[in-house]
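Tokens for chain A. Residues wanted.
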């Protein structure tokens, strides 16, 4: 699992995705689901730039200290 911490890159992403080699799904925001609003998980032919996202993200286990720095800066996380 990886986390994108780059604010500029995050600002280019709106939807949520499940991406595999053969299919891609577009997902509603998690808040929509929590609020019980009507939404659908749909297969899409769109191809988000997964390789770019993956390359420009941090491994949650191997790079936790780097992720934590971003959390501290953004949320005063301790």
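Reply:
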């Amino acid at each position: 699992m990886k986390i994108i911490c780059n604010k500029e890159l995050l600002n280019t992403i709106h939807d949520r995705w499940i991406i595999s080699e053969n299919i891609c799904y577009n997902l509603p925001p998690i808040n929509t689901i929590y609020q019980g609003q009507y939404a659908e998980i749909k297969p899409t032919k769109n191809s988000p730039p997964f390789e770019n996202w993956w390359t420009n993200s941090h491994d949650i286990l191997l790079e936790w200290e780097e992720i934590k720095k971003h959390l501290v800066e953004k949320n005063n996380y301790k």
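The chain has a mean pLDDT of 89. The helical segments are 7-10, 30-34, 50-55, 64-75.
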